[in-house]
Amino acid sequence: MRKTEIVKVIDDGQERTFRITQMPATKAERWVNRMAFLLVGAGKELKTDDIDIEKAIRAIATIDYEKAEPLYNELIECCTFLPDGNVNGGGIACSQETIDAQIVDPMNLYRLRMAAAKLNFSFFTNVLQFQDHKNDTITFKKNTHK
Prior knowledge:
Blueprint: E1 4-11, E2 14-21, H1 25-41, E3 46-47, H2 53-60, H3 65-76, E4 79-82, E5 92-93, H4 106-121, H5 123-129, E6 139-140
Antiparallel strand pairs: 1-2, 2-4, 3-6, 4-5
Helix pairs in contact: 1-3
């Protein structure tokens, strides 16, 4: 069963409730791989023993927005708006096309994306806690040889 988390934000003076649902494993893996390729293409070196959400967000900020936008949109797709605040009920699936009907304050988009990223990619922290050796590090870097 995929993990879920309830996030409440104040938007336009009203409390709005969202359910964040973890991506399926294959979708999360594709998301991470696509982000890694974008980061390496932007000249960043990534090491698996040095990954956490905050560092990842800072690194993502170095990518051309147009290239990263589909990944940002997928984080919004993890959100379901719960109009009556009933966390056990159904809701309205969020997407880039529908989120404007639910959110007025752009800062809440950041809050929702950050909550989705933390829920989906907390496995990096869990993986790193189980690493026994520094030699287990995987490094992604741009190949500059022609």
